[in-house]
Amino acid sequence: MEQIEHRTIYEAIGGYKTMNNIVHAFYTRVNDHPDLKPIFPDDLTETIRRQMLFLTQFFGGPRLYEEERGHPMLRRRHLPFPITPTRRDAWLTCMAAALEEAEIKEPYRTAMMERLTLTANHMMNTPE
Fold it and tell me: Which domain of life, per UniProt (predicted)?
């Protein structure tokens, strides 16, 4: 029988340090992406902080986002921003590259992208 070493993806990938690497690698790409940059603020400091809280919780770490901001209500919080299929795909491309840069190993990389893809699909709110 295989021993389970980690209870969550967050623990398995290295916790805070690795999640921080992912989030910063992701926003470096977002800031340079022509489809994404228009819907993000010029100063990404608070956006990065909130994404760090959210992804930590989303992947099984401490429930920091919920403690600070309540239920994520992602779709509702993102309704003011036109999220098209093109922007969804760009977001996922940036996240996949960030996971690669952060050296997330399998099976965690695939598991993370599967969850993020479901969420990104749910966030679309505007046709092309």
Answer: Bacteria
pLDDT in tens, the chain (128 residues): 344 467 899 999 999 999 999 999 999 999 999 999 999 999 999 999 999 999 999 999 999 999 999 888 989 999 899 999 999 999 999 999 999 999 999 999 999 999 999 999 999 999 99
For the chain, domains (ranges, CATH) are: 14-123 (1.10.490.10)
Asked whether the whole model's pTM tops 0.85, one would answer yes
What are 117-121's contacts with CB under 8 Å, separation 24+?
Answer: 117/92, 119/58, 119/74, 120/88, 120/91, 120/92, 121/88
